[in-house]
Design brief:
The chain is α/β, with parallel strands linked by helices. It has two domains: 76 residues, NAD(P)-binding Rossmann-like Domain (Rossmann fold, 3-Layer(aba) Sandwich); 166 residues, Dihydrodipicolinate Reductase, domain 2 (2-Layer Sandwich). The protein is built from eight helices and ten strands. The strands form two sheets. Strands 5-6-4-7-10-9-8 form a seven-stranded mixed sheet. Strands 1-3-2 form a three-stranded parallel sheet. The protein is globular.
Length: 267
């Protein structure tokens, strides 16, 4: 946190992978991260580095805050619905599973192989610090107030995120599967790292392991008038380092896909 200003003063462009500059409301950040922010004056200057939303700002930015892993998968899934005013933005649900690498490499009992294997469990049920980041991003991109129930889970795998997203359709909107499919395909048609799967196909973490790709599917459940979006990414690549490189490429006018075109690691 303290090193950013000297780097900027020296004319160095900064791409920050930490959570220190993602949330624009300083008081809200301090509430969720439970520490005093060391340089709040820099927060307004940090461009939120989600290229699928802020590509033009990233091109001219000197300072980028790379989004978190859960926020990336969840925002990319919800955005087309909110941008087209199709769903009730006050009643969104995000049920997300992540591999243990999402918690880093700390020597914590819950992340030991014998504890994490052959089991899946929720954590952060009452509150998770990625929630305000998700709500801020969706609000700024779609211009609507966001009500989100976000529950993360620890899955018995090393890497990967699979987010299952639920959004109730607005009462006055008539929605079809074909319409939703078209909206998502059009929204991400020019995005090199977001793949909208065909209707009836669904994402899997093994399909994106080691890649900068995010797989997305959209399904309309007419029995409950609910849209279900599935979003899968590698939390260590599109959810972290790969997205940082993508931002760097955009920032320096390079080919956006440079260094990021590797296919998923299978098996």
């Amino acid at each position: 946190m303290h090193s950013v200003q000297p780097l900027l003063d020296a004319g160095v462009k900064v791409i920050d992978l930490s959570a220190d500059f993602r949330i624009q409301d300083v008081a809200l950040w301090e509430q969720w991260y439970n520490i005093k922010h060391a340089c709040p004056e820099l927060i307004p200057h940090a461009v939120y580095g989600l290229p699928e939303v802020n590509r033009e700002q990233i091109k001219t930015a000197n300072f980028i805050a790379v989004p978190g892993c859960y926020p990336t998968a969840i925002q990319l899934g919800f955005l087309p619905l909110l941008e087209n005013d199709l769903v009730d933005s006050s009643r969104l649900i995000a049920d997300a599973k992540s591999g243990v690498s999402g918690a880093g490499r700390k020597a914590v009992e819950d992340y030991l192989l014998c504890e994490a294997t052959e089991s899946i469990k929720a954590y952060g049920v009452t509150a998770h610090r990625h929630q305000p980041e998700i709500c801020q991003g969706l609000h700024r991109a779609a211009g609507v107030e966001i009500g989100l129930t976000f529950i993360p889970h620890l899955a018995p795998m090393v890497r990967g995120i699979l987010a299952t997203l639920y959004a109730p359709v607005k009462n006055e909107r008539n929605v079809t599967q074909e319409q939703l499919q078209s909206i998502f395909e059009d929204r991400y048609a020019s995005e090199p790292f977001v793949e909208v799967l065909s209707a009836g196909e669904f994402p899997a973490t093994r399909n994106v392991k080691g890649s900068n790709r995010c797989e997305i599917s959209v399904t309309y459940r007419d029995d409950t008038d609910t849209v279900v979006v599935l979003s899968a990414e590698d939390n260590l690549v599109k959810g972290a380092s790969g997205q940082a490189i993508q931002n760097m490429n955009v920032m320096f006018g390079l080919e956006e896909t440079a260094g990021l075109e590797g296919i998923a690691l299978l098996p």
